[in-house]
Structures are given as structure tokens and as C-alpha cells.
TrEMBL record:
Cofactor binding note of this UniProt entry: Binds 1 FAD per subunit.
Protein name: Dihydrolipoyl dehydrogenase
Matches recorded under SUPFAM superfamilies: FAD/NAD(P)-binding domain, FAD/NAD-linked reductases, dimerisation (C-terminal) domain
Gene (UniProt): odhL
Cell location: Cytoplasm
Catalytic activity: N(6)-[(R)-dihydrolipoyl]-L-lysyl-[protein] + NAD(+) = N(6)-[(R)-lipoyl]-L-lysyl-[protein] + NADH + H(+)
Binding site for NAD(+): G189, A190, G191, V192, I193, G194, L195, E196, E212, G280
One example GO MF annotation: flavin adenine dinucleotide binding
Obligatory cofactor(s): FAD
Length: 474
């Protein structure tokens, strides 16, 4: 006899486990199936998906360690602190990262028990639609569920002619588990993952070259932010080459040889100890048996959904990286909550216009809403308030005045249309802008809110004042 549930979630990543927990809170009998064991010593399914296991969380752990290492070697002296020449123990760093991952993935299992979510070991595959709902094969068993939420996430995109072994040639997973600091490291792709991993290993002593196919750096960010970031990263020591055409990569005596054509059309070859391929991610629909039940995919292989994450099949939903929109863990979580609440007859909602983006380099980069170039392309007149951290007392006290806050508001209504930050703690500062935009705030609203002094948030306040050409400290 098959197991029966009100809701079955396929995939235990950020979108999946949050959807399962919220559905259980709303009174549904819920199961979540997960098959990926990652590096679990017992071979059990690891919850948390790419984000917790080989993405957001482990990369932030390495970024923090490498930041402390660089501060000890280059920043402490200016503060009057003498510690000698620091050394990095890579196995210890990786071990700390793994311990954090284990704690968080195990914590999700605890949340499942607390909320009475049944964890099933196995990959979910559609069988048929029956009288009681959908029949899904999970491992060797058949599960029946009235509603199904697909949250299978994404996988690293690889390039032809460049075989990834996650030892010498790595994707995002292998980049997190290098056993030593490579003397020379090449990264293909100057996106979020490429810049973050490049920052980690550069700080620890690698000579890092980043090869990017696009002619512009960080084209998805605001143009002013992209220009500032390029200037800062080059000064830090990242060798960023734009407009290149990648050829093939093959093992060599030193490690790996990478052939490419530079922006001027000249053939080039780089020798490196390690290569990281970071050219985006693709939706993961393998094994779903989508064709057998008529589940519709779009032209990019994503599951086709409406604005509320409904698929073309009755009672089947999809969230996260496997559908359209930015591949961000927090976006997937919001979609998971929305779907659970819609299933319960509530007014679930996800505002895709106020989803923040963050790049955890140093300085951090964060933004929400439209960029200035997008507004110009759309013919929207806007006011610009831009204030550097160099004018901020807290930033000066911290010894990090890099970057600025840039606020864009509608020229007629003053409603905030976008906020772009490059600087220390940008990942935290952007939340104020998200809240403001979610409530439809004008720049004047933020300008008239008292901000604690001295704080970095005062730069957001000054940027709001600058939209009306009345900053007080710059």
C-alpha cells in the first residue's frame, strides 16, 4: 500500500524545505523527498540543497576565514596591531566550513521533526495522476499526494571541451574543497560565484586570473557599481579579462592548460595549478519523468509556471532555481511560503521586484530594484542620490571607506525605484531598502527617518537626502 500525503515536496533545498515546513504549519500532512547525499558519511539524504551544502553557506565560511587572513596580513598594522606573518592551514579552514554545513543541514532535519514533516529518502519521479492525486515514485516506493511541489533546484553548467573532475578542474562544489592554496588559479566566469571564489583564494595567496566572455564587467549590476567594483578588484590583485572566447582545457605538467582567444582576437594560453568553471547554473529536471505526465518546460529547460508558481498540471507547483527568475536561495524560500499559503486558501504573495541581490566580496555588493541603465532604457526619469562611505564616521573608524550608496527615485512621485550599495556590510544595509520599497516608500520617507549615529546606515540616509539635493554630511 502506498504512503499518502496531502503534500509531497520533491527536493530538500531552500525552496523545498521551507515549503514543506510552512505547509505543515498550515495543517497539511507533508512529506519531502531528497536523494542527494553530497558528502554525508552515512549516505543519508542531505537537506539544504546546493545552498547549504556546496553553495551559499560554505562559500561564506571560506570568505570569512580568508577575510580574517588578509586583515591579519595587511590590515592589522594600520590599527597598531602586530601579529607577524600569518599562515593558513587549509585543511582546518575546510574542516570548519564542513562543520558549519553539518550543523545547518542537521538542523533542518530537526525542524522537520518539530513540524512533523516526513523525510523520504529517494528522488521523486512522476508516475501518473490517480483518483487521490499524484502518484510519485520515491526510491522503490510509490507515494500518493494531493499536491506536489517541485523544488529540484539547479546544477552547475559545464563547458564543452573542459571536463570537470573537481580535483584539477572544478565547478562550484570542487572550488570549496581545494586541499591547498593553488599558486596559480584561473576562473572562467566573472559572475557572483567566480568573484567570490576568486576573492577567497586570492586573499590566501593565489595568483588569480578571471576569464569572462561578456565584454562588460558585472553587466547585471548598476553601471556605477560595476565600474567601482572593477577598479577595486583589479587594485586588490584580481586579473580580470573581458570579452574572451574559451577554447579547451586539458591536464598539463603544472596542472591545467587553458586555451582562449582574448578580446583582440589573439590566441592565448594559460598554465594554472587549478581551474574553476563558474559559468552559471541550469535547472535540474533529471528524473522527474516530466514528459510522461505532460509537465510543461520552457525553452530554457525550466518548469513553466505562472506568477504564483503553478505549473500546467492541476495540483502541481514548482519553486526555486528550477523555474524562471533569479537563482537565489531567498527567492526560492519566498516562493515556497507563497505556494504553501496558496494551497491553504490564503493570499500567498512574492514580490519579485523587491528581491535583493548580494555578492559577498570585499567590498560587498548589494542591490534591489532597477539599475540606472534599466530606467533609462525604459524611459523612466529618475532622481539620483549617491553618497560615498568616505564621508561616514563609522566607516572611517572601521578603516574601510570603499564604495558608496546610490539611490534612484522616480522624478515625479519620488518613489524609490532602486538602491545599489558597494561597501562594507552592504548585504545587511540593503534590507532597509527592501523594506522601504516593499511599502512603496519615497526617498523622502527614508530621508525623514532618524538613523543611529555613528552607523554605516547613515550613508543610506544621506543618499535619500541627496535625491532631493540636500545631504547634510557630504
Amino acid at each position: 500500500m502506498s504512503k499518502q500525503f496531502d503534500v509531497l515536496v520533491i527536493g530538500g533545498g531552500p525552496g523545498g524545505y521551507v515549503a514543506a515546513i510552512r505547509a505543515a504549519q498550515l495543517g497539511f500532512k507533508v512529506a519531502c523527498c531528497e536523494s542527494n547525499a553530497y558528502a554525508d558519511p552515512k549516505g543519508e539524504p542531505r537537506l539544504g540543497g546546493t545552498c547549504l551544502n556546496v553553495g551559499c553557506i560554505p562559500s561564506k565560511a571560506l570568505l570569512h576565514t580568508s577575510h580574517l587572513f588578509e586583515e591579519a596580513g595587511h590590515g592589522f598594522a594600520a590599527q597598531g596591531i602586530s601579529v607577524g606573518t600569518p599562515e593558513i592551514d587549509v585543511p582546518t579552514m575546510i574542516g570548519r566550513k564542513n562543520a558549519i554545513v553539518n550543523q545547518l543541514t542537521g538542523g533542518i532535519k530537526g525542524l522537520f521533526k518539530k513540524n512533523k514533516v516526513t523525510l523520504l529518502n529517494g528522488h521523486g519521479s512522476f508516475v501518473a495522476q490517480g483518483a487521490a492525486g499524484w502518484q510519485i515514485k520515491v526510491g522503490d516506493a510509490i507515494v500518493e499526494a494531493t499536491q506536489v511541489i517541485i523544488a529540484t533546484g539547479s546544477m552547475a553548467r559545464h563547458l564543452p571541451g573542459i571536463p570537470v573532475d573537481n580535483k584539477i578542474i572544478c565547478d562550484n562544489a570542487g572550488a570549496l574543497d581545494l586541499d591547498a592554496v593553488p599558486k596559480k588559479l584561473v576562473i572562467i566566469g566573472a559572475g557572483v560565484i567566480g568573484l567570490e571564489m576568486g576573492s577567497v583564494w586570492r586573499r590566501l595567496g593565489s595568483e588569480v586570473t578571471i576569464l569572462e566572455a561578456l565584454p562588460e564587467f558585472l553587466s547585471m549590476a548598476d553601471v556605477d557599481v560595476a565600474k567601482e567594483a572593477a577598479k577595486v578588484f583589479v587594485k586588490q590583485g584580481l586579473n580580470i579579462q573581458l570579452g574572451v572566447q574559451i577554447g579547451e582545457a586539458k591536464p598539463s605538467k603544472k596542472g591545467v592548460s587553458i586555451a582562449y582567444t582574448d578580446k583582440d582576437g589573439k590566441a592565448q594560453n594559460l598554465e594554472a595549478d587549478r581551474l574553476i568553471v563558474s559559468v552559471g547554473r541550469i535547472p535540474y529536471t533529471n528524473g522527474l519523468n516530466a514528459e510522461a505526465v505532460g509537465l510543461k518546460l520552457d525553452e530554457r529547460g525550466r518548469i513553466d509556471v505562472d506568477g504564483q508558481c503553478r505549473t500546467n498540471l492541476q495540483g502541481v507547483w514548482a519553486v526555486g532555481d528550477v523555474v524562471s527568475g533569479p537563482m537565489l536561495a531567498h527567492k526560492a524560500m519566498e516562493e515556497g511560503v507563497m505556494v504553501a499559503e496558496l494551497m491553504a486558501g490564503q493570499s500567498g504573495h512574492c514580490n519579485f521586484d523587491t528581491i535583493p541581490w548580494v555578492i559577498y566580496t570585499s567590498p560587498e555588493i548589494a542591490w534591489v530594484g532597477k539599475t540606472e541603465q534599466q530606467l533609462k532604457a525604459d524611459g523612466v526619469a529618475c532622481k539620483v542620490g549617491k553618497i560615498p562611505f568616505a564621508a561616514n564616521g563609522r566607516a572611517l573608524g572601521m578603516g574601510d571607506t570603499t564604495g558608496f550608496v546610490k539611490m534612484l527615485s522616480d522624478a515625479k512621485t519620488d518613489r524609490i525605484l532602486g538602491v545599489h550599495i558597494i561597501g562594507a556590510n552592504a548585504s545587511e544595509l540593503i534590507s532597509e531598502a527592501v523594506v522601504a520599497m516593499e511599502f512603496g516608500a519615497a526617498s523622502e520617507d527614508l530621508a525623514r527617518i532618524c538613523h543611529a549615529h555613528p552607523t554605516l546606515s547613515e550613508v543610506v540616509h544621506e543618499a535619500a537626502l541627496a535625491c532631493d539635493k540636500r545631504p547634510l554630511h557630504f
